Amino acid sequence: MTDVTRMTATAIAAAIASGETSAVDVARAHLDRIAAVDDRVHAFLHVDTEGALAAAGKVDAARAAGEPLGPLAGVPVAVKDVVTTKGVPSTAGSKILEGWKPPYDATIVSRMKDAGLVILGKTNMDEFAMGSSTEWSAYGPTFNPWDLTRIPGGSGGGSSAALAAYEAPLAIGTDTGGSIRQPGAVTGTVGAKPTYGGTSRYGLIAFSSSLDTPGPCARSVEDAALLHAVIAGHDPRDSTSIPAAVPDVVGAARLGATGDLSGVRLGVVREFAGEGAEPGVMAVFRESLEALVKLGAEVVEVSCPHFQYALPAYYLIAPSECSSNLARFDGVRYGLRVGDDGNRALEEVMSVTREAGFGPEVKRRIMIGTYALSSGYYDAYYGQAQKVRTLISRDFAAAFERVDVLVSPTTPFVAFELGSRTADPYQMYLADLFTIPSNLYGGPAISVPAGLSAGLPVGLQVMAPTLADDRMYRVAAALETAVPPLTPPAL
Ligand code: GLN
């Protein structure tokens, strides 16, 4: 049999179901691959060898007993470290949570366990998911398997790098402003942000609660859809979870894979054209449009005049919510405590702990957010940003009256060199120029590999109306049939 670490999740599940291989052998092959390459990639913060082999053993036992297996039973998955896993370290990439083992699983984790997925471990990320390069991890950066001198995107760079390095066939990410799609784009993998509220936030370590959305990462669109179907659906433990049926994302991905897009209208946002994506990225984008037109789609230019304010609005809303969410890390309830020598007042211990436990980008966000929410400034900053958010949602609504989906490059530039943007926060924030609008609106969006620019991957972003996640899978799967697979150089 071919090397299982190169196979899709779909193929792995079929091989386990038919008895061609066992879930334990599949888990071992991936653990071996991690042992062989992760010292160079650093996609993982924690590898759960024992847990993975035990979970795989259960799937093999269930199969031997003739029990029915789910469509992804026995398939390994890597989980971003911002998602709680019972008894398994969950640090969110921060020193302040070093050594913390959550007493419970996130809803998406329990759903994966119930479906027989095998959790390999926890992946590296920018601290508390704030960043676009994984360089803000307190545990050192992740390296892009396409070029180890370059960033793998962020904040979920570990999840996407694990896929590109064949350390895992599936991964979980979270997307607040682009952290699933942008790492997907720059590592040549697929990353999907479901409709906000379509996947449960219960058990995510919160960054910006009105934006945080967990979702699937994979090397194929169908694999992403299969994982989406496992984790999505209403959860009473999340107050913003949508009590609606999950769209048939797997069926849509399979429909798209037939390569027929007749009658599908793609909207190209006029205002994005002037936003300065690299020429190489724009060239791949234009080729993708041509390929989609050949498959029967129609391209329509649409205007979304408020998208130009998305980035500044996001950088008020997200830090504001983070300044409130991160108040819980006070050295008393979780993780790190510094300076508790019996003489210090509680407030001082909290302050010393937060000073030592948070990194520079997190501190910057807490300060911006606290300022934006402070009395006298609230209306001018946070209130104004919320109004912009409404205008952006209206732009989406108007566009979706004319087209089925919007398409754009996922990112303005390909993977950049490590260290080249950390000194200038604004340069780092620009990585999410095209991904942030759909977060503010709440609709689903996916990044699918579209081609190479100077030897590095470029992603196409497909954005759909809220609860029409199936549409983006269809278009993404169609593009996949038209683009040769992107294979990173051997590690
Ligand atoms: N890069 C964006 C930020 O720094 C998005 C992060 C995310 O989606 N978690 O906030």
UniProtKB/TrEMBL annotation:
The record's note on quaternary structure and interaction partners says: Heterotrimer of A, B and C subunits.
Which sites are catalytic? 80 (charge relay system), 155 (charge relay system), 179 (acyl-ester intermediate)
Enzymatic reactions: L-glutamyl-tRNA(Gln) + L-glutamine + ATP + H2O = L-glutaminyl-tRNA(Gln) + L-glutamate + ADP + phosphate + H(+)
Positions of the Amidase domain: 26-471
HAMAP family, A to Z? GatA
What InterPro entries has UniProt attached to this entry?
A: Amidase, Amidase_CS, Amidase_dom, AS_sf, GatA
Role according to the record: Allows the formation of correctly charged Gln-tRNA(Gln) through the transamidation of misacylated Glu-tRNA(Gln) in organisms which lack glutaminyl-tRNA synthetase. The reaction takes place in the presence of glutamine and ATP through an activated gamma-phospho-Glu-tRNA(Gln).
Show the GO cellular component annotation of the record.
glutamyl-tRNA(Gln) amidotransferase complex
Q: Which GO terms describe its molecular function?
A: ATP binding; glutaminyl-tRNA synthase (glutamine-hydrolyzing) activity
Q: Which family does it belong to?
A: Belongs to the amidase family. GatA subfamily.
Keywords on record: ATP-binding, Ligase, Nucleotide-binding, Protein biosynthesis
Q: Name one GO biological process term.
A: translation
The coding gene here is gatA
Protein name in the entry: Glutamyl-tRNA(Gln) amidotransferase subunit A
Q: Does the keyword Nucleotide-binding apply?
A: yes
Q: What is its EC number?
A: 6.3.5.7
Any one Pfam family match given in the protein's UniProt record, by short name: Amidase
Organism encoding this protein: Virgisporangium ochraceum
